[in-house]
């Protein structure tokens, strides 16, 4: 398992997590919009064999061809809103169902034109070198005992997966997909081992210095250009679900520390009645 390769610090650690998300993206791609479960099983078996043989370029080429054909299918179909809404509700995706009903021709995700790409690049400039005033010097007492995070285990990861919702990151696997992989009893010990691997990865991230290049795929986000109106673009990023699950595990017992450290600078950290207090403070000074 690639996550265990990263956990053990193997010679392939620098690409292990990237391999995880690339495998999810190319391995779980539906063969066509109307494919059945049997088709998915056959396709996955063949793709895993290609993956083990190192035929990554073939898998990526297959995925690109399928994705290009999906665009053609979408253009020719006019989905029944009632059926789509009912399907989303039955799957428990209430927010997605309401969002589907409220979509209009003037809103939603923009097509990636040259103008949209230019605006996205303007909103995401190249990082600047750190200024001297923002750098800390001297010894830092930042070592955290591993015992603080000892309660992070496979069961906590499973429970966090059950509470996680939302769409997927660059890998394309959403919260429902990870919920099935991590909490479904059909996979027996495979789900348990995957939960334990993610728990160990989370504890490592909390207690050890990590080479940032080894976790690029974990913290990557899928950039989506939304229509802001009047030709403007509102970019949003959707991160990987595994990252959200790990964050839920950490925040389950570190929330008080985060709230105390954030203070009034970041109300969404969990300050009780923080927004109301900010409004009253502004009213008092205006």
From TrEMBL:
Domain of life: Eukaryota
Protein's name according to its UniProt entry: Uncharacterized protein
